Request: fold
Amino acid sequence: MSAPAPRRLVILGAGTAGATVANKLRRRLARDEWRITVVAKDDLHDYKPSYLFIPFGMDRPEDTRKAAHTFLPDGVELVISPIESLDPDVRTVRLANGTHLEYHTLIIATGAHIRPDQTEGMLGPEWHASVGEFYSLEGATALRDRLRDWTGGRLVVHISEMPIMCPVAPLEFVLLADADLRRRGLRDATEIIFVTPLDGAFTKPVASRILGDQLERRGILVEPDFMIEHVDQEAGAIVSYDERVISYN
Reply:
């Protein structure tokens, strides 16, 4: 009597989460019982926490990106293709290359993605210029170039909506910007404003008690309860639903 065919575990995504799960489960699951397949749209693995440091020259773009297959252990199959659809009724993943992957267990680790198109006016001629972000490699690199030419003005760091990837990152950014501008002798020429839809920069009681004065001590202004309605790129301003207007350079 022949042995039963191995069950298939399919992991969608080869980023930090997908690669971590693949490594852990390959060690735990018997190879004669489980076949592990990772699906990724390309053979690129970005270490996204490094994006935060690129604008300040602390990390280089090329240091954040490696080949995805180098993070996967022997015995894990990597399939390169965008995903077309899922059919949970028949436990099948349909890929853009025409492949149909049947699975016994499916893990979705496709990550989070920025959606600037969801905020009116954010995309436009000033996107990745005077309107930037550091949650993508392209955005972090463009922001680095922008800050290199910075000579002063109003720097606004704004959280459009929660939840977001790494909620503390915007706070880290303003503190890194403060330190970088002081090092370059540009802090006195720069007004830094931290804008958030929450009721304060630090919303956890312990964090507020211990860290609550850190921004004030550094001269960083906080604008809480700001629910953005649109970005006015022509005027260089963000506008809230309650018609508050905050200009930026």
